[in-house]
């Protein structure tokens, strides 16, 4: 039901508004006669208005005469006519199709003036005049449409909205075409909320608009960056029965392609084809791009073929999208083939295309091809940007081509595109490699070039100093960072904590943790794992286990890495019951053990001489289908070797080779030690030769085991040759090596060489073990040199070493018969 017109909306002070009024101070004398000498116009303003209205109303059936009458009146400066006059004339003109255009012109002139009444007031005047003077006025009369259009033309958008709102209150409706004009004007001026509100009122009153309306609203959403809302408008409008046209489908598909729902884009595209519409190249391009983003290359390629069959040629955007898809799948050859194809077809790649294929080459380690493309791009006059250079520098560094990376970096500096991100990439690599001096030089260069370091820059430097154990410099970088006004992140604190833990300084690490909490930084899982792992590495696994329980109470959910750190810590400390308890907690908590978990347990069990339990773990791991790595094989092989079960050790060694793994230094050394323990030095020597043939480096433990075995056999010359070879390779003997050498020399009564070896150890400030002195004392006792034996005994005491039972028996009771070497339990 229509609402009644309220006279209260017409204040008396606004009753008469003039068309193009003049200032009162410049009013001319009373106007002359308008129509004829016999029809004078009253001199008062009210009488003038009444006379004009009556005269216009007498021409209701003759709109041209009415308009001519107003024009004549306007020719006399003294004649005034207000909103009622305009309203009456509009109603007269709109009553006849041939004068509707003149009505629109009149309304445009009136609205463009500066003194007209507010939109709601003028709308009420139109209604009041229609009621008083008997004009037919439907709820969808053209006057409302023309009025909205006039406000928009006059750039009075706010007034157009006010007019629309008043029309809604009175249940009056303009034509959809004119409502669309208002919506378009709002969207063009980025007045999205106003447009959304106006459209909502239309829909509430059953005026859903047409395709053009929906087009405007969807474009508004896309302009505002809300594609999901655009798709929602489309879906709801179709639900209300609006039949979408091809253009609307284009917009809808474009909107959906900007959301994660690429499947819906395919559905809409299919509907277009079913309706007989041929999608535009732009539409195909959007859907192909969306499929590529979703990793659906099968559909993307199908659509490319469909697009070509519809007469649309592949443009650079489509080709580049497909290249990105190939690159995401790691199909570098396919991406390069497509790149070559578009070149042959005459398409000229742009910077984005080059960046795509260059980035893919770098990711796949094909730096030669990447640099070729980079060179070709520059030859075509396309200057590189920071993204392309970043790809190349990262690729060169990943392939450890430092010289090429440095050359390209200097080129980027010359081009002026070396930004802080490029510097950070280089800094990160140098610091990871422990090349902190080079990183510091690069930092100084960055500062000279006016590039301001950010938090990531400082994180890299802190990480670098932590890696080389220079915690003072790491802390200085942290302090400088805060002094520059850069706020340390949780990652910054975590790096510093990790550095202190790696250097065995748990107390400072916890101080950093407290500072982080004081700074209102919430520890992440990464941070907590650093704390747990750090404590385990400094031998405080029990503390780490207790701390984990506190973190669990605060809602922390531990992962496999957390449990592995504690299990590894307990295993290393020989607390296997505790390690197994944590393993059970881990399984009960739904965390699946990994090969690292089992390897830590097997290692610990083997070292604790619990080989049977270690084998149970080994079989459990295989039963669960966990793929074993070299470290896992090394752990169980070492266990068998310590058990002197070389048959089982050989079988596992063969199995390791059969599954395609390559034994490392640790595996070979375990096997060599095992064969030495069973006095099979021929097998040990063969394994050593195989190591050399396969290029596997021997470490000090490997050489010590071989030297020990040869000395036990009495082959002093071969042992001496092997020792010389070890030194020539730059491998420094450790305390175990010297213990083996001195013991072997003493057994062969090479006491002078043994003495010189001990002196060399002293010069290197290596503290000799009790076993070394015992071997020397036994040797001199056998030679009858009791004075030297007692001197060595005194020297041993001076160094704080406590003689063992063997030494005491020799010196007190003279019991040395049968003692030819160190006790088996003390041998290396």
UniProtKB/TrEMBL annotation:
Keyword Transit peptide among UniProt keywords: no
One Pfam family in the UniProt entry: PPR
Top-level taxonomic group: Eukaryota
Ranges: PPR repeats: 140-174, 175-209, 210-244, 245-279, 280-314, 315-349, 350-384, 419-453, 454-488, 489-523, 524-558, 559-593, 594-628, 629-663, 664-698, 699-733, 734-768, 769-803
Keyword Repeat: yes
Keywords, alphabetical: Repeat
SUPFAM superfamilies xrefs: HCP-like (SSF81901), TPR-like (SSF48452)
Family: Belongs to the PPR family. P subfamily.
Protein name listed in UniProt: Putative tetratricopeptide-like helical domain-containing protein
NCBIfam families: PPR
InterPro entries according to UniProt: PPR_P_subfamily, PPR_rpt, TPR-like_helical_dom_sf
UniProt region (Disordered), positions on chain: 20-47
Biological classification of the source: Eukaryota, Viridiplantae, Streptophyta, Embryophyta, Tracheophyta
């Amino acid at each position: 039901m229509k609402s009644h017109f309220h006279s209260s909306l017409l204040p008396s002070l606004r009753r008469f508004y003039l068309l193009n009024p003049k200032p009162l101070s410049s009013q001319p004398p009373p106007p002359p006669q308008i129509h004829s000498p016999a029809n004078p116009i009253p001199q008062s303003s009210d009488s003038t208005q009444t006379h004009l209205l009556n005269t216009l109303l007498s021409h209701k059936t003759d709109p041209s005469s009415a308009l001519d009458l107003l024009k004549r009146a306007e020719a006399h400066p003294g004649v005034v006519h207000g909103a009622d006059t305009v309203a009456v004339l509009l109603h007269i003109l709109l009553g006849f199709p041939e004068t509707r255009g003149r009505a629109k012109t009149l309304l445009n002139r009136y609205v463009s003036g500066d003194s007209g009444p507010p939109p709601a007031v003028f709308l009420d005047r139109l209604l009041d005049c229609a009621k008083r003077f008997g004009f037919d006025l439907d709820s969808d009369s053209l006057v409302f449409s023309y009025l909205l259009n006039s406000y928009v033309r006059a750039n009075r958008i706010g007034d157009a909205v006010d007019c629309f709102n008043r029309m809604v209150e009175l249940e009056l409706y303009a034509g959809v075409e004119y409502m669309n004009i208002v919506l378009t004007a709002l969207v063009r001026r980025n007045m999205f909320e106003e447009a959304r509100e106006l459209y909502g009122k239309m829909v509430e009153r059953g005026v859903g608009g047409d395709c053009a309306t929906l087009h405007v609203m969807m474009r508004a959403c896309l302009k505002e960056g809300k594609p999901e809302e655009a798709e929602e408008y489309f879906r709801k409008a179709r639900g209300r029965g609006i039949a979408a046209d091809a253009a609307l489908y284009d917009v809808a598909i474009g909107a959906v392609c900007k959301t994660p729902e690429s499947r819906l884009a395919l559905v809409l595209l299919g509907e277009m084809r079913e309706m007989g519409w041929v999608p535009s190249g732009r539409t195909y391009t959007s859907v192909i791009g969306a499929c590529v983003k979703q990793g659906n290359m099968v559909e993307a390629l199908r659509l490319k073929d469909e697009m070509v069959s519809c007469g649309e040629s592949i443009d650079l955007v489509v080709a580049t999208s497909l290249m990105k898809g190939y690159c995401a799948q790691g199909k570098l050859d396919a991406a390069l083939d497509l790149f070559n194809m578009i070149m042959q077809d005459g398409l000229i790649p742009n910077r984005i295309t080059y960046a795509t294929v260059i980035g893919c080459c770098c990711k796949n380690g094909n730096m030669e091809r990447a640099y070729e493309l980079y060179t070709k791009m520059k030859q075509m006059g396309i200057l590189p940007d920071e993204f392309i250079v970043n790809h190349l520098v990262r690729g060169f560094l990943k392939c450890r081509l430092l010289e090429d990376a440095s050359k390209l970096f200097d080129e980027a500096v010359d081009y002026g595109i070396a930004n802080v991100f490029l510097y950070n990439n280089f800094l990160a690599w140098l610091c990871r490699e422990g090349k902190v001096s080079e990183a510091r030089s690069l930092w100084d260069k960055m500062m000279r070039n006016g590039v301001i370091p950010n938090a990531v820059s400082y994180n890299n430097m802190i990480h670098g100093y932590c890696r080389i154990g220079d915690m003072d410099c790491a802390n200085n970088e942290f302090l400088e960072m805060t002094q520059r006004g850069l706020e340390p992140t949780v990652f910054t604190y975590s790096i510093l904590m990790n550095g202190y833990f790696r250097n065995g300084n748990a107390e400072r690490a916890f101080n950093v943790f407290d500072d982080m909490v004081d700074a209102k930084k919430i520890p992440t899982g990464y941070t907590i794992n650093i704390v747990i792992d750090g404590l385990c590495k400094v031998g405080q696994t029990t503390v780490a286990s207790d701390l984990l329980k506190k973190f669990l109470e605060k809602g922390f959910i531990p992962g496999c890495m957390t449990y592995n750190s504690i299990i590894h810590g307990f295993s290393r400390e020989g607390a296997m019951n505790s390690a197994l308890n944590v393993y059970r907690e881990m399984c009960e908590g739904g965390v699946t053990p990994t090969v690292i978990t089992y390897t830590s347990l097997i290692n610990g069990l083997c070292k604790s001489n619990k080989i049977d339990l270690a084998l149970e773990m080994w079989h459990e791991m295989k039963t669960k289908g966990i793929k074993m790595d070299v470290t896992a094989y090394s752990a169980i092989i070492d266990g068998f070797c310590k058990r002197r079960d070389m048959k089982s050790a050989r079988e596992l060694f063969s199995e390791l080779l059969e599954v395609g793994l390559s034994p490392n230094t640790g595996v070979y050394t375990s096997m060599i030690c095992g064969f030495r323990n069973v006095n099979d030095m021929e097998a040990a020597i063969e394994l050593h030769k195989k190591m050399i043939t396969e290029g596997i480096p021997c470490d000090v433990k490997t050489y010590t085991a071989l030297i020990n075995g040869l000395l036990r056999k009495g082959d002093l010359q071969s042992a001496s040759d092997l020792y010389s070879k070890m030194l020539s390779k730059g491998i420094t003997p450790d305390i175990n090596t010297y213990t083996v050498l001195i013991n072997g020399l003493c057994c062969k009564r090479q006491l002078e060489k043994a003495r010189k070896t001990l002196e060399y150890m002293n010069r290197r400030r290596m503290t000799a073990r009790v076993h070394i002195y015992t071997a020397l004392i036994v040797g001199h006792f056998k030679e009858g040199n009791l004075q030297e034996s007692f001197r060595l005994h005194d020297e041993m005491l001076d160094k704080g070493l406590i003689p063992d039972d063997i030494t005491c028996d020799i010196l007190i009771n003279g019991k040395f018969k049968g003692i030819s070497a160190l006790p088996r339990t003390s041998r290396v």
